[in-house]
Amino acid sequence: MEKLYIPQIAKSVDATETFDFKEFIEGLETLTPVQGVISVRHVGTFLSVTAKASTIMTLTCDRTLVQFNYRLVIDKSEKILLSDALPEGDYPKEREIETGDLVESLSPSGYFDPAIWLYEQMILAIPYPKIAPDAPALELSDKTTSPDLNVDKRWAVLNSLQLSDQ
Question: N- or C-end of the chain: fewer Cβ atoms within 10 A?
Answer without folding.
Answer: C
